[in-house]
């Protein structure tokens, strides 16, 4: 959902030819959402799911997947968490 909002804001900035929307407000929107996710939402998830969520956080990156070090057919995926 956040990716959709980011693309929408970026697209509107391009459509309206607004440098301030592209260079100031869109990055500010992304930054504020990152702060919200880390500071508020993750704490709520930790409280709700406890150790299971902490293990999930250790094994699954927040934004960019890790491809290095995972062997095909190792059977380790997110369904096992």
Structure description:
With 81 residues, the chain is mainly alpha-helical. The protein has one domain. Helices cover 67% and strands 0% of the residues. The chain has three helices and no strands. Helix 1 (2-15) runs antiparallel to helix 2 (19-49) and helix 2 crosses helix 3 (51-59). The radius of gyration is 17 Å and the shape is elongated.
The N- to C-terminal Cα distance equals 24 Å
Low-confidence spans: none
Principal-axis shape:
elongated
- Main pleated-sheet profile: none
* Range of strand content: under 5%
Provide a concise account of the structure shown.
The chain is built from three helices and no strands. With 81 residues, it is mostly helical.
Identify the notable features of this structure and list them briefly:
mainly alpha, 81 residues
Spell out the blueprint of helices and strands.
Elements: H1 2-15, H2 19-49, H3 51-59
Helix pairs in contact: 1-2, 2-3
């Amino acid at each position: 959902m956040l990716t959709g909002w980011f693309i929408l804001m970026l697209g509107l900035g391009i459509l309206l030819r607004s440098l301030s929307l592209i260079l100031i407000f869109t990055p500010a929107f992304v930054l504020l959402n990152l702060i919200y996710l880390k500071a508020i939402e993750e704490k709520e998830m930790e409280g709700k799911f406890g150790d299971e969520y902490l293990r999930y956080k250790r094994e699954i990156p927040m934004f960019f997947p890790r491809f290095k070090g995972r062997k095909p057919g190792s059977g380790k995926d997110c369904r096992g968490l």
